[in-house]
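Hey,
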Amino acid sequence: MDNFTFYAPTYFDFGRGAEEHVAELIQQFGGSRVLLHYGGGSIKKSGLYDRVVSTLQKAGIPFVELGGVRPNPRSGLVYEGIELCKKEKVDFILAVGGGSTIDSSKAIAAGSLYDGDFLDFYQGKAVIEKALPIGTILTIAAAGSEGSPNTVITDESTQIKKGAKSELLRPKFSVLNPELTCTLPAYQTAAGATDIMAHVCERYFSNTEEVEITDRLCEAVLKTMIYETPRVIEDPDNYEARANIMWAGMLAHNNICGVGRSQDWASHHIEHELSALYDVTHGAGLAVIMPKWMRYVLEINPDKFVLFAERVWDIKPGMNKKKTAQKGIEAFENFLKSIGMPSTFDEIGAKEEDIELLTDKLLGSRKTEGNYVKLTREDVIHIYKSAL
């Protein structure tokens, strides 16, 4: 196990009706003038918007609002949010929605206290040194941004999707009420579940030795998702299944499953170019890319895939290493298909003629991608082509 530091101070308020506590939580963490940031009309249709606004008004908390966050959040709305925060002297951001809304809020939080272009943080030109505090009310279990220091934004001028990271971006609090996810369509639920599983896999496939504790944590989250996802797709109002998935989503990405070990992230980065160019749902894109990455790198580094097969998918030992590993990947692919996820470019609207462009955007001036196996440009092209 490698040396590490780990600090995850987010306060979680979990359970039925937890959103009713949002005003007192904002006050507890020093907020006095709030930006209410959210996505489309779903929180208004569900009544959540009205409940949140009423709670803020009753507590006498002044707020301004900015809606319109779309999946794969864009730079344009972030610029708008930064300008609004500066003009209105906002000192706290409340994100109501899923990972896209939270990621957009994090970008606004950092950009509002920065004199330059907030995209500097996403392009490696600057380090986040200060940020407005953030709170969240989560409405979809997927990205894990409610407990992580990470944020991903699409630069609309280049259609390149990149991430930034800072401990200053971990939310001060996150409200997690599983009931708020019950109205999600089955496809969104499944895409969220895929994203959760991919977050774990990016950490699980590591070359660091003697990491049994985090291996077992990863396996537990994966086993939970395998059990709970079909249950919640069959019965969208299954509160207990929703609750387990919601907490799994947080555990998958606040990095408690990833400390002390090298991590990969090739599948996520390869997929980011798909969602940036085609506006693909991130989890659906991962369902296409991650199994293809697995099959490709298996030929080079099969060892961890044997554990993945035996411990996660209950593949009986006894076969040779490669065959056991292949059985595990096949089980993963079958699971994704069973919950309605795509497996090919055609199903997500991606095009073969764009593969060179996707690869160029991914790598930029870098020569390799990923850590479990360092992928060259030719390797990345092969993975994209295997999804045709």
